[in-house]
């Protein structure tokens, strides 16, 4: 039962799982970090992974953790906003394509945060940087703390709440706030 419960969310949000692994592997390759093994999606726990060598610098480790987060967050917003706009302009009619877009955006946003292995690598690189008295390490600690907190709280739905916040709540507020401006432009 535990395996089904841990696998079911990944199955429901499979586009985000596959995209995360693709972005993760691409960032590793662009930074010269050798990718040893990659599974985009499989019927097991974990549902996907990218196994790569340890980055040689803190900046590479930070990029491997942050770039997928930023891309996933941006894609979540960019996919969900066009689906939310018609609800304001067309009297809230439910459109299957809009619901599909919202599902796709949320499924991408849910998998924005880096996996435990990458934050573990980042923690090791940060510790090494602190021993060398590097200033960058002091900037990474709050990011690392946020990642660890997000990973722990994902057991309680933090990743889903994050995706709904950036994919629906904030864009809905933005559309609601700027709706008079947008409707004025469309009325001409």
Give the secondary structure arrangement, pairings included:
Elements: H1 2-12, H2 14-30, E1 35-39, E2 49-52, H3 58-89, H4 96-110, H5 116-131, H6 135-153, H7 158-187
Helix pairs in contact: 2-3, 2-4, 3-4, 3-5, 3-7, 4-7, 5-6
Please report the total strand number as a whole number: 2
How would you sum up the global shape? globular
Q: What's the mean pLDDT score?
A: 80
| Number of continuous helical runs | 7
Structural class: mainly alpha
Radius of gyration, in angstroms, nearest whole number = 19 Å
Strand order of the largest sheet: 1-2
Number of domains: 1
Instruction: Catalogue the unreliable spans.
Output: none
Give the ordered list of helices and strands: HHEEHHHHH
Binned, the helix content reads over 70%
Biggest pleated-sheet summary: 2 strands, antiparallel
What is the terminal-to-terminal distance? 58 Å
Strand content: under 5%
């Amino acid at each position: 039962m535990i395996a089904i419960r841990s696998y079911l969310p990944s199955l429901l949000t499979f586009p985000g799982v596959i995209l995360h692994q693709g972005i993760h592997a691409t960032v590793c390759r662009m930074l010269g970090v050798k990718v040893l093994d990659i599974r985009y999606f499989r019927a097991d726990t974990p549902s996907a992974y990218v196994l790569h060598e340890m980055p040689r610098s803190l900046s590479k480790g930070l990029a491997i953790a942050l770039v997928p987060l930023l891309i996933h967050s941006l894609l979540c917003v960019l996919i969900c906003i066009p689906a939310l706009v018609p609800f304001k302009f067309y009297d809230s009619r439910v459109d299957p394509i809009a619901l599909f877009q919202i599902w796709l955006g949320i499924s991408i946003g849910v998998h924005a945060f880096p996996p435990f292995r990458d934050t573990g690598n980042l923690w090791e690189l940060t510790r090494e940087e602190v021993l060398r008295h590097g200033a960058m390490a002091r900037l990474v600690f709050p990011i690392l703390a946020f990642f660890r907190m997000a990973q722990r709280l994902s057991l309680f739905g933090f990743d889903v709440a994050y995706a709904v916040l950036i994919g629906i709540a904030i864009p809905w507020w933005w559309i609601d706030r700027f709706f008079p401006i947008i409707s004025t432009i469309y009325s001409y």
